[in-house]
């Protein structure tokens, strides 16, 4: 059914966009602040 090919690609693009937005949100909310906190703690400890 070649009529459904564009809808398949639209579905793939939508799913990829949703996954990308979710990953960006999770990284900015949980992962990156932990690395920043760890790095700042290392800098603070090394300056003591």
From TrEMBL:
The chain crosses the membrane at residues 6-27. GO terms for cellular component: mitochondrial membrane; proton-transporting ATP synthase complex. One of its GO terms (molecular function) is proton-transporting ATP synthase activity, rotational mechanism. Its main location: mitochondrion. It is a single-pass membrane protein. It is found in: Mitochondrion membrane. Keywords: Ion transport, Membrane, Mitochondrion, Transmembrane, Transmembrane helix, Transport. The keyword Cell division does not apply. This is ATP synthase protein 8.
